[in-house]
């Protein structure tokens, strides 16, 4: 009998607490959203399950424990290995032609980083976060999971869980966050601007782009090189046309494996005692602010550019909202919004892909600046 | 020089993003002009041969598109 009681006292049931139970609910909500609503399922399922196993008492499955997840965390996130590898896969999967065919949309990708700045300032001045923590919270506005994880692992590893959760959760909520902002900031006439097709781009230009961009951005901000360098390397693999095997691996099995590891370990950073704090609530609040202001930045800047463009060459300002990254969800949201507003007459999906992919570069550059100035 | 405050860090970040992406935008604009997209050249001799053959077999036929499947 003593042996049985002893065994029970060493079980998770005897050691579970209210915090663990709350985290089980958080985990359940994420898994539900992923399966039932198909919100970012490739990430929310690993993250949700990571939260679950990290909150199993005595199981040593948290990212800061000594078990297998801790091993992956130490080898993959502390060393900053996994986020750049994800960027390699993203580079393989991304077609930059819509951006190259309409280079002015680079500027929309820049303007849509406004939320990073507003959220960082808010986190520092309103909630009293340190500068490093504020920068990490701000980068949620870049709407780029790997960039957020990369920066958090370097500047504020203790915030990795809530920041990643906020980034991926809000990315999945882009269809809810962006349309009201676009509606508020644009007139019906502006939403109905039908942009001509972007000019076609030669194979040579497509090949020069990753080499040129990787070099220039990495020379300007060397600390952004792990992200932009890998992104552009992936894109070169995609476009070269002679590395089909590498392309298939980097854009398929490799990014899938890394996504599993990244999602699980990020989820497993959210042990109850670290996650259930007022700081987490502040981070979630500032994350929403970041997404909102990034959307506004892109839309308003598109309207500003329109002041200088002749009639017939004006930009549909809604495509500025896609500059927040969240590729390709944000571009799809713009397409659906504009199409519904114009009864299907205007379909700016490809035009929105330009700022969408420019936003990926923009948020990586912003992260690089934070690293350079704060590390 | 003391460590910069968060306001100047944020300002620097936004400015840098604009500068880097503007440089890329201008450069890509010139690169795409330097290496413009070229439509595939049509072989006018083959086009004329196919057109004349078809008009002989099916009078009044107008050839609008010739596609080569390799």
List the SSEs and their pairings.
The complex is a heterodimer of chains A (375) and B (70).
Chain A: H1 2-9, H2 12-15, H3 18-36, H4 41-54, H5 68-77, H6 82-93, H7 97-100, H8 105-111, H9 114-125, H10 131-138, H11 145-155, H12 160-172, H13 174-185, H14 188-191, H15 203-220, H16 225-240, H17 244-267, H18 272-275, H19 278-306, H20 329-341, H21 349-374
Helix pairs in contact in A: 3-4, 4-17, 5-17, 6-11, 6-16, 6-17, 8-19, 8-21, 9-10, 9-19, 10-11, 11-12, 11-21, 12-19, 13-19, 13-20, 15-16, 20-21
Chain B: H1 6-34, H2 44-57
Describe the structure concisely for a colleague:
Chain A contains 21 helices and no strands. Chain A is mostly helical and 375 residues long.
**Main beta sheet of chain B: strand number and arrangement?**
none
Measured as a percent range, the helix fraction of chain A is over 70%
What is the β-strand count of chain B? 0
Radius of gyration of chain B: 28 Å
Could you explain how this protein is built, in words?
The complex is a heterodimer of chains A (375) and B (70). With 375 residues, chain A is an all-alpha fold. Chain A is built from 21 helices and no strands. In chain A, α4 (41-54) packs parallel to α17, α10 runs antiparallel to α11 and α20 crosses α21. Chain B has helices at residues 6-34, 44-57. The chains are: A mainly alpha (375), B mainly alpha (70). The interface between A and B is large, with 45 and 31 residues.
